[in-house]
Amino acid sequence: GAVEIMSDRAQAAIDPLTRAMTLAIEVDNQEQKALVMHALGVAYRLLNKPDDAMRNYLQSMEINKKLGLKRSLAVNYTEIAQVQTMIGKPDEALKSYAAGLAIQQEIGAKKESGDTLLDIGVVYENKGDYDKALENYKDALQVERDAADQNYEALCLNNIGTVYLAKGDTENALSYLRSEERRVGKECRSRW
User: How crowded is residue 143: how many other Cβ atoms within 10 Å of its Cβ?
Assistant: First the structure.
């Protein structure tokens, strides 16, 4: 099932994941059940079926809470936030992202917290709250730099530049967008 999801064949993932769920139930493996529910949630989200996605994420979350699996619980919160964003509930999404971020920071999941800060910035940008978007993008940028994730660093630089552009601050916009361009150019040259 996971292979199909990764290859953008979410519909093809449903059958094998449903069989995996049956097996997890038969052997009473709660952790596996939570993982399969999460994967089903991802498949349904990719299929634009937010109700099915949310149901599976919430069931996965319930099990992860009982088992004390904090890293998985943080993922549940961020996936739920993505569905909430998808269905036009940005304020609920921000609460879910904040809950996931708090867990990520508690367990020291720095890279994941950078990704979540970036997602939070996107929600604020879409709401038109550019100051909050910049705050989160800049925090994400620092985390991504510390994690040496050049792809996400470039994405942060691009998002910061885009927000400055939306605010009418072309000087800062160009500064960040040029930094992103230099970062991408350097990455391309290192691959050749």
Answer: 22
Residue 63 — φ and ψ, nearest 5°? -65, -45
Q: What is the pLDDT of residues 85-121, one digit of tens each?
A: 999 999 999 999 999 999 999 999 999 999 999 999 9
Residue position matching structure tokens 């470039």 = 154
In this structure, which amino acid lies at residue 24? A
In angstroms, the CA 107 to CA 130 distance is 29
Q: How far apart are CA 113 and CA 92, in angstroms?
A: 18
Instruction: At 2, list the tokens.
Output: 């996971």
How far apart (Å, rounded) are the C-alpha atoms in residues 162 and 28?
49
Are 163 and 176 a contacting pair, CB within 8 Å? no
Confirm if 105 and 142 have CB atoms less than 8 A apart.
no
